[in-house]
């Protein structure tokens, strides 16, 4: 009785110690592209991509998109001896073994296909016996079990499995030893080279065997192995390899699902939440409920968990998809509308801040004035204090009118002015410059500008917050952007609503809440990134693995495993897609790339510069490449530009057309030589024939001297040649045909009818014209030398220019009426086409007329 009471008290204390607030998870489920929400296993491949196996599919994830591999619904390879849980092994960088109860499947990752017949595969690698269980060790070696025999695919010799030890459930092999884990709880160590048995050790007494005999999962840790065991109970054990002793770390009355290690701690998933076991002192924390970024709590079974190489923590749930946590996410604390004591359904606009003497902050909203006390000094809640808490002059306020939303002169003497379309910078003695999203700004609509005590400049925008950095040598301005993955508001910030409190905390207010940040929390070393090729497009069409294009297999291997491309001379319109596998925050990824032979220097691209590109994917297009060999180099970095990751290189060979090859030139030479020889022969032949004819004529003249007159007449007739007259064909140029003109007029009419639809795309236009996308592309390029997307965009820009000259609508309204996603995107496209910003167009047009 005392033991039970003691155990209950310990459990209560552990529950008090563990806090779900330490982890804030982001849900990743079918809404983000996961095939289904029943996650069974998580693994990270050698190239950095994530594998999520679900009840329906195998999901490959590159940080931006999910790619599905549909598993066969029947057949497979039978594993008679395997009764355990779902397991996945990666062998090398090409095979993925999936082991389920009594069933084995294998995926060829290089071709992204399930192997159709594993019996044939095993025979091809020299395995003749029927395997009853399969394992892959940390050195990518394949182990197989048949009866009471264990052998390795690439080595001679066998290990005899003792009958009394029970069924083999797991193995671990290092450089010298092989450790086998059996259903009886016994561990037996062998010498890898001699197969000699070294020692045996049991995790528990014989009386406890029924409690933990059913399943096993072993993970190598510092100084030994952690093992999960299940039976009528669940248990977590640790084996110290130096002392050769076992220690029970955790025992539960329910099943334990998966085990992962991180920084000396063991994380164990179970039917509700997960356990954290500290390896040094054995202290156990239990988190039954998990907090998500929107503040809700999830209480569900965690079927699997995994730590990726970037420090991210993935949880796979039984029916709610994935949960992702990273300690560097959500550095901004979001205080949303649920903290405000106001009626539901009413928008809250945080308009200004003011510091109070006791360390709290006063917040002026459209619904009143509130006092906020940070969690360190209070409960972190908001209390209404009335509208007269401070004089009006103490409130933060930056808006100055006349289109200027915020203004600030920094410690350098530079003046920054925020507008609805860009950030203006005025340096002493220099011309004013306007910075836009093209320069790295998070969004073109500026709401507030704040300089903190460390002389860092912060800018709130219509989407996220930008921190401004200035190079101390060159004076160049760079931006580091933060968005919802960092904890910023999902909506707009408010003009002038920014404050640095006495303790250095920064406050930024906007629609339905505010965010706060301690700046020193942001400075953390970022994991190096190496991009992976995830997609290739040929003439606008995505290239599929193994498919043939123009009688050539462009991608014999899947894109991430492709190191070189062989292309025909007319396969030179290419688009590449790379992912940096930045799971922490894809939209803050920077890239630089260079195509040797085309780009003189590195070209930089920022994945989060525009909303439509904020998925973290780099898209590079090269058109009309000449035949030759090129090397495309790509690097990635988190926002800030430290290029400390690896370089991904892709060799591209574009073959010359057959008429420009060495063989063709050789044939040309042979043909010319034959032509010369033939011409000489023909000349000699004609000369000889002419001489023979003349000789015959002389003989004839001698023999018929008596008929000279007749012969002369005959010779005159012979030497008379008929004269033919003719005319040359004159090729006349023709204008565009009436059919082509009618086609263009119809296409323009269709686009103009759908002008206000932002989503009206090339696919929609080709459908309305009853044409295939490729046919439409070729038609417009032939007639106008423009792609369909440029054709649609130019019509939108022409209409936008007409609206600008009318002067009745704002840029935002014009963007809506012409189908652009935002005013900033309209501005960028307009400047590319007309050479000036929309705000300058009308004035320039008037001057030119």
Please provide a written account of the structure:
The protein is an alpha+beta fold and 849 residues long. Helices cover 19% and strands 35% of the residues. The chain folds into 5 domains: 2-325, YVTN repeat-like/Quinoprotein amine dehydrogenase (Methylamine Dehydrogenase, Chain H); 333-522, Hemopexin; 532-656, Immunoglobulins (Immunoglobulin-like), CATH 2.60.40; 660-690; 740-848, Orthogonal Bundle (Arc Repressor Mutant, subunit A), CATH 1.10.10.60. Strand 27 and strand 28 form a beta hairpin. Helix 9 crosses helix 11. The longest helix has 42 residues, at 662-703. Residues 1-20 form the signal peptide.
Q: Any key phrases for this structure?
A:
single chain; 849 residues; alpha+beta; Methylamine Dehydrogenase, Chain H; Hemopexin; Immunoglobulin-like; six-stranded mixed beta sheet; 58 strands; Quinoprotein_ADH-like_sf; membrane
The CATH class label of the largest domain is Mainly Beta
Count of distinct strands = 58
Unreliable stretches: 1-20, 720-734
Instruction: Please state the average pLDDT score.
Output: 85
Largest sheet: 6 strands, mixed
CATH architecture of the largest domain: 7 Propeller
Report how far apart the termini are. Answer: 99 Å
Give the total of domains: 5
